[in-house]
Amino acid sequence: MTIVTVERKVLEKNDEIARRNRALFSSKNLFVINLVSSPGSGKTSILERTLEFFNRRVPVAVIEGDVQTDFDAQRIARYQTPVVQIVTNGGCHLDAKLVEDALGSLNLEGIRLLIIENVGNLVCPSNYDLGEAMKVVVASTTEGDDKPLKYPAMFQHASVLIVNKIDLLPYVNCNLEALKANALKINPALRVFETSCTTRSGIAAWCSWLESNLKP
Amino acid sequence: MHELSIAQNILEIVRQSVPEDELEDVRVIRLKVGTFSGVVAESLDFCVSAVVAGTSLSGAKLAIDHVPFRIRCQTCEREFTNDLGYVACPECGGVETTVVSGRELQVTEIELDDHQQGTP
């Protein structure tokens, strides 16, 4: 038996492209977030409220990732925001190459914030670095308070947790304090925001914090 | 569930690491898979067997070394294994911790049958 020692990361190709993306973002002074959650948590609604709040005062571009359709890109285009839709055709996550290709169709001139909305999936996107500055995970109250414990990897990799749909708390079986405590058990460094895209509660706090991260 | 594309990445690494005329001698592809690598070992095994079928790598099987999730507390300087993925220190409650292991997804070794000269 001959043994060949390899010691290579399986996702090394993705990581290499992610480094390239990160270098490009940095050369353009662009702050980039990777928005992740299960389907239906309200990622696109948070994006819409965020664009509405900035009201073109902060130039934002968006990359949308979905398994099928360009519904989300159509929603974002209404805000006169540059947007590219990636359709993964069954793929359960975005990878760095898909983002690199999408960047080719985005004019980033003057843009200060790029928001990448990942495919709705609380598992796979946690493994793929896209070159972003941080992952922002959304957990909505309708999903219950145990998701951070059931899907820890995503909460480990995220820097921010947005608890969305807080207006529905009286109607759903979700203890807000337990949800936050569960998330902080997994990742004590998480910064937590509570939002409702219907009442717009918490949107200003989230957007102001986001804006404070932008490069001058 | 992205084990199929992971399986393809693994085979690409094997093809880059072994000369083409020796691929059919590959018997074992050894991997390090962390608890929080995001892949299910059984699915990966199944996907690799599906992808190698009918190729020069059809004799290859995976051998998976599992790596537990371990954190090191910067406050009390102790290390803990925690398969639930909690990052806070279970002893002193410290939140300044570093992940020591458990996120690996790596090809470590490839084992080949020694080529017998003169045999087909």
Shape of chain A: globular
| String of helices and strands of chain B | HEHEEEEE
Structural class of chain A: alpha/beta
Indicate how many domains the architecture of chain A comprises: 1
Descriptive account of the structure:
- The complex is a heterodimer of chains A (216) and B (120).
- Chain A has 216 residues and is an alpha/beta fold.
- Chain A has helices spanning 12-27, 43-54, 71-77, 96-103, 147-150, 152-157, 176-186, 203-212, and strands spanning 2-9, 31-37, 60-66, 83-87, 113-117, 134-140, 160-164, 191-194.
- In chain A, strands 4-3-5-2-6-7-8 form a 7-stranded parallel β-sheet, sandwiched between helices.
- In chain A, β3 (60-66), α3 and β4 (83-87) form a beta-alpha-beta unit.
- A 3-stranded mixed β-sheet of chain B has the order 2-1-6, covered by helices on one side.
- In chain B, α2 (41-52) links the parallel β1 (26-34) and β2 (61-67).
- In chain B, α1 packs across α2 (41-52).
- The model of chain B has no long low-confidence stretch (mean pLDDT 91).
- The interface between A and B is medium-sized, with 30 and 34 residues.
